[in-house]
Amino acid sequence: MQQFWQQVLVPLFDGLRYSTLAGYSWAHPRLLLLLPVIPLLFLLRELLAQRWRSKLAVAFVRGQARGHWSALLRFLPDLVLAFSLAFGVLALARPQRTDERIEQSGRGIDIVLAVDVSASMELGDLLPNRLEAAKRVARNFVRGRRGDRIGLVVFAGEAYSVLPPTTDYELLDEELQNLRLGMIAADGTAIGTALGVATNRLRDAPGRSRVCILLSDGENTAGNLAPLTAAQLAHAFGLKLYTIGLGKDGIVPYGVDEQGQPRFVETQLDETTMRQLAAAAEGQFFRATDEQALKSVFGQIDRLEKSEIRQTRYRNTHDYYRFYLYWAVGMWLLWLGLKNTFLTNALED
């Protein structure tokens, strides 16, 4: 008995809930427009009956006849028939639920972003400064990747691994947003050390392709590892290096002084070294003098380093029209039974 209740009766009554009906997708949704037509049919039938029904102008009782609740039972057969038609419409509309499963095949790319957070990244030739512009574009780059493991290294006078290569893009986006000037106490630009940390993160990565993207605006002024040696070491471990030089050469804005007047400093990117680093690790060097150019650089890298991720979609559709068809047939049989009782007038039908 319990098995019959769980397999037959529970689904029958569960299908009557609004939340269940709202959760369906319908194979023929336009048929649902017939539902409001059903009560109109009964109203039209009643109006026509009132028009053509013969009336006998003879009273067999004295005074006004008192009404009784049992008189409402004469509407019961019509109500049952209306529900039968409504359930029939629901069955014809074919309520369905679709389960979709996505399987990914192939292997993504392992990427490490090495971001300069030294004091020179405060320069305002990229608005509001170089670091904030780099963060915005890097975050958009991360959002566009699918299936790749991406890590984060930051450096100034020293270099630290903030996040190992991961597919948790929300966590990576949060860590990029939290980057700030002065987060590393030792000032300077340790490009070689940053490449060494990135190489250490990627050398045992299982990905088919390993890429390091270095963003910096200066020359190597700190650290114990020469940048060119670090690039050659990265190449030996199978890494490809893209170097991005941020900012303009010459006089650029640098905050304001004590009187609130804008300050200017002279800056120079060691473009020669940045090109040598990229060439040593079979990558490319890019120069980004404004945010639009920086976006273009990341767009080019995105096109160059595409991961081969294939998606296979499986769709499994379940029909639930049978439950409503059972209700429609059951109500129809009940209506036929009620027609043979005192509740209906055979002469009017």
Automatic annotation (TrEMBL):
Which InterPro entries is this protein grouped with? UPF0353/GerABKA_families (IPR050768), VWF_A (IPR002035), vWFA_dom_sf (IPR036465)
Q: Does the keyword Cell inner membrane apply?
A: no
Limits of the VWFA domain: 110-301
Membrane-spanning residues where? 31-52, 72-93, 320-338
For this UniProt record, give its keywords in alphabetical order, as a comma-separated list: Cell membrane, Membrane, Transmembrane, Transmembrane helix
Give coiled-coil spans as residue ranges.
Answer: none
Query: Highest taxon of the source?
Result: Bacteria
Please identify the protein, giving its name as recorded.
Answer: VWA domain-containing protein
This chain's source organism reads Hymenobacter koreensis
